[in-house]
Amino acid sequence: MTWETVIGLEVHTQLNTRTKIFSGASTDFGAQPNTQACAIDLAMPGTLPVLNEEALRKAVMFGLAIEAEINEISAFERKNYFYPDLPKGYQTTQLEKPVVVGGHVEITLADGSAKSIRIHHAHLEEDAGKSLHDDFHGMSGIDLNRAGTPLIEIVSEPDMRSAEEAVAFAKKLHAIVTSLDICDGIMAHGSMRFDVNVSVRRPGEPLGTRTETKNLNSFRFMERAIEKEVARQIDVLEDGGEIIQETRLYDGDTDTARAMRSKEEANDYRYFPCPDLLPVEIDQAYIEAVRATLPELPDPRCQRFVEQYQLSEYDAGVLSENAATARYFETVAAECNDAKLAANWVMGELAAKLNSEERDIETASVTARQLAGLIKRIKDNTVSNKMAREVFDAMWQGEGEPDGIIEARGLKQVSDSGAIEAMVDEVIANSEKQVENYRQADAKKRPKMLGYFVGQVMKASKGQANPQQVNEILLRKLDELL
Amino acid sequence: MSIDRATIEKLGELAKILISESNVEVTTRSINDVLTLVDQLQAVDTAGVRPLANPLDATQRLRSDVVTEPDCRDQFQALAPAAENGLYLVPKVIE
Amino acid sequence: MHQKTLAELREGLIKREFSSVEVTQHFLERIARLDERFNCFISVTEDAALARAREADKTLAAGGAPALCGLPVAHKDIFCTRGVRTSCGSQMLDNFIPPYDAAVVENFNDAGVVVLGKTNMDEFAMGSSNETSWYGAVKNPWDVRCVPGGSSGGSAAAVAAGMAPGVTATDTGGSIRQPAALCGITGLKPTYGRVSRWGMIAFASSLDQGGPMARSAEDVALLLNAMASFDPRDSTSAERAVPDYTADLSTDLSGLRIGVPREYFDEGLNPATEQVVREALRELESQGAVLKDIDLPHAKLSVPAYYVIAPAEASANLSRFDGVRYGYRCDAPADLPDMFKRSRAEGFGDEVKRRILVGTYCLSAGYYDAYYNKAMQVRRLIKEDFVAAFADVDVVAGPTCPNPAFEFGAKGDNPVAMYLEDIYTIAANLAGLPAMSLPCGFVDNKPVGLQLIGQYFQEARMLNVAHRYQQATSWHRRMPPDID
To answer: Out of C19, C76, C315, C411, which one is annotated catalytic?
Structure first.
């Protein structure tokens, strides 16, 4: 008998505001510990929160992008629990009246089928700090720079039936929030973190007991964590056991998961309306003003790429999914005036490099302008495709602009026909035997034999001769000898 | 509603306040005194009454997204029971 | 000098009859001599005060001095003061020296005051007798066997004993008005949102409001002029202009409609206190005011509603005191939960812990609706009683407290007996209305307070009534015996 997997996601999405949700401290990533934790973030006595208007605006943008309802009156609650990285002893969040209610996200699966995932709601809340478990004389260190960073927590309905669907949903959300420019989307910085709720059941039966695996910060880890958890639950059930509702942690480095030691179920969060923050009014005029500023979203952008650049559905899908990739591709295409080549390079060489180094396109070592510069040199025959890859590698290593590298490394293709003719003449003169064989050979076999001469000329030119020209000149000269 | 020892212990756990064995009884008694007082509320008919969280029924004013807070780490950490290398130190956090 | 009102001191300073240094030295000398008996101060900032006074004298000499230039005041130790320990009456914050000032402290500094020090209070403002302070109870200057009231007992007693001519205080359920009544001085709790809560250590955020105390209504008006402001750092701060509260002090009372709630003269009220309060109402009547009996049917529910709402908010507000970033941390914690639990068990006193536990209970799963939500509904009913009453009257008047100051330990170990002392003051906090207390006589040689409750943001009207009353009476001029 088969098992059906049921998955729901809670996605913590950091909003890319300049300052914290309730304080004027900077949200820049990577600062020295606690240098961006102000009196409010540290919950110093007597300090009070004031809501950041940008955080609200970005939450509303998200709601509009997924065709959700925006609550006219939105309110904040306190969620009470003690943790050293939670300075106030409560998290300011939303329970009864979140900014965003409902909505849906469309996903496409590998087999081309489409599915709509419903969103339950998305609410504004503050992020916590970080506990560093490195040993400080047996103690943990607390960095509160992240405390108070604005988040929207996006909560899906349990509409996903496989890890593949969950990943497709997560990637689509990533594409939406980056296209809206409400989140930088940098997974390595924890800008999007996923909690996955997983249960299994026999088809047609009510939902099984679910577990929650917290804080997954890459698509790959999320996929692995779900696959492992599904397998574990099926094993337990098939052995006659029961699933315990628990919170679990997945370690991507070791590909292992375990239940959290601290007993979450003992918690009673005692939510109540935050008396320091009054209800937020979001009127229709405000909503319409925000709607007017919505940028292009991934699905319409994909359609445009097909039409404007004559890309295949597949290529357009890959290039439009993520705002940064789309922006990169469009910059390259515009600069080099060749969308097809631009698409090939962004999806080929560039993607391979980013993958192997596990980097995001925002941090790519080759800029869109540099790549366009290189493509121009391919198009004007200055370099061959093969040499272009060498130039690309050099740019990636930080050696500078394409023209400079071509010059410095002497990679310029020789297209001067006089020079090539001279080399061809020399090769023919030095290859009496091969020329004789060529002459004797059957006309059908000759093209194969041409390879030898081409190789010799390329060798003589140190690889810089334009191969197409070499071919043409060789054919002409050898034919003259027939 | 009257509460018992187990409830008091759970409240101590939630509020992270150690209630020593010698104090459990007197704490339970005084909290029950307070709960007896507040139980007067149960007799009131409040059907259809909107809860009043803020006395003025006001709405939230928003802040513009501008950095206003400089780095004052050293000042703040001078107040900390334990800090090192810019971090606040606490007994090991176990997840 | 210490018998003068702030207004009189101000005039003397402006006319250069005496200097700010002289005034400051006079009060510092009294603090040094008397505070051992009354325990009003947690910290005295002598050097800073004298330095400020010297500056003030220069400004006064140069002319164009700000409104309160050179006048000495003291701040309740709940207001954060940059560089000066701010304990909130708790061991938890005994070592806490904030690197920032409360908005109220900033406002007073801008107005040119000289800060004498920080006054004693019930721990985290939770108490009506000052007995919960970690620094020991304040003694009532009228009778040292009696409590000064709370939680702003140190502030009230400092004014009563002539150790400060004006002070700041806070009021969550009566913490300005009740000690003002018990110590025979004038104190005002403004409309919720009138005074910024920034830098004022929170007890119950939707109820807390800072306000001034002094000898007279005129002094209170002077102080409120400086204290009130719109503050964008406090989301609940009222965005409206601050009027000059001294402008209409002398307006004639004829035709003024005073509502007298039947519920405030019930069987719980001490008969002798009732007599004194009725006499005060007659004085107002004799000045042309019209007394009208009114009903506040839900008034008796204010104490139970308050003891759900205030502890619930406090239970969250006080979670930040966890021993991680500042304040008290227990010795040698075994592990993280032990650090949290022992730091809080040792750092907080019994009343604070009791309220945290009650609040935790009222918010916990299964009880939220029965307690917290119910209390918030009753809160609206209480507010609506006042809204209805104010359709027919301009101010509401009655006793501030059911009894004059009681003796230390008189309330035994049942916390509820103490809570009921706030029965007449709490409703104004729940409704967010401005209210004040002014001295109106004595019972057993102990002061009695007349409470006035005003319409939203109509502090000036109450001050007008209080000032007219004080023009015709001298209760506010009385000083406790045996002090000098």
So the answer is: C76
C247-262 tens-digit pLDDT = 999 999 999 999 999 9
pLDDT of residue A88: 98
Nearest to A270 among C202, C322, C363 (CB): C363
Chain C positions touching B51 (Cβ under 8 A) are 373, 376-377, 379-380
Write the CATH number for A470.
1.10.10.410
The neighbours of chain B, by the rule of 3 or more Cβ pairs under 8 Å, are A, C
Report the 10 Å Cβ neighbour count for A263.
Answer: 10
Same domain membership, residue A438 and residue A394: no
Q: What is the pLDDT of residue A461?
A: 81
Closest approach of chain C CAs to the CA of B31, in angstroms?
Answer: 7
Phi, psi of C482 (to 5 degrees): 60, 30
Beta bridge partners, A142, equal A131, B88
**Cβ distance C72 to C119 under 8 Å?**
no
Name which residue leads in pLDDT, A136 or C69: C69
Average pLDDT over residues B29-49: 95
Q: Residue A195 sits in which domain range?
A: 4-287
Residues of chain A with pLDDT under 50: 265
Active-site residue flag, C315: no
Q: Which of A81, A272, A277 should we substitute to test contact with C (largest number of C Cβ atoms within 10 Å)?
A: A272
Residue B89 C-alpha, separation from nearest chain C C-alpha, in angstroms? 7
* C206-219 pLDDT, tens digit each: 999 999 999 999 99
B74 reaches A (C-beta below 8 A): no
Nearest CA to CA, how far is B56 from chain C (Å)? 7
Q: SS3 of C115, please?
A: strand
Give me the amino acid identity at A395.
M
Q: What tens digit of pLDDT does each residue of A349-373 get?
A: 999 999 898 888 888 999 999 999 9
- A254 plus A312 within the same structural domain: no
CB A377 within 8 A of CB A403: yes
Q: Is A266 on the interface with B (CB under 8 A)?
A: yes
pLDDT of A481 reads 79
One domain for residues A28 and A162:
yes
Do A428 and A353 share a domain, yes or no? no
- Residue type at A145 in one-letter notation: N
* Domain endpoint, select from A287, A320, A354: A287
Distant-in-sequence, close-in-space partners of C301: CB < 8 Å, separation ≥ 6: B40, B41, B44, C378, C381, C382
Nearest CA-CA partner of A80 in C208, B11, C177: B11
Catalytic residue status for C151: yes
From A67, A66, A93, A97, select the one nearest A78 (Cα to Cα).
Answer: A93
Q: What is the pLDDT of residues C196-208, one digit of tens each?
A: 999 999 999 999 9
> Residue C124: its pLDDT value, please?
98
Share of chain C above pLDDT 90, in %: 97
**Co-location of A47 and A177 in the same domain:** yes
Minimum distance, in Å, between the CA of residue C233 and any CA atom of chain A: 7
Domain final position from A408, A440, A462:
A408
Query: Is C157 part of the contact surface with chain B (CB cutoff 8 Å)?
Result: no
Mean pLDDT of C150-158: 97
- Produce one character per residue of C56-75: b if its CB has 16 or more CB atoms within 10 Å, e if not: bbeebeeeebebbbbbbbbb
* pLDDT score of A263: 55
A239 with A150, same domain? yes
Q: Do A60 and A204 belong together in one domain?
A: yes
Put simply, whether B2 touches C (Cβ < 8 Å) is no
Interface of B with A in 28-47 (CB under 8 A): none
Q: Are residues A404 and A427 in the same domain?
A: no
The domain tally of chain A equals: 3
Distance separating alpha carbons of residues B5 and A482, to the nearest angstrom: 110
Is A344 part of the contact surface with chain B (CB cutoff 8 Å)?
no
The amino acid sitting at C192 is Y
Q: Which of A21, A22, A48 to mutate to test the interface with C (most CBs of C within 10 A)?
A: A48
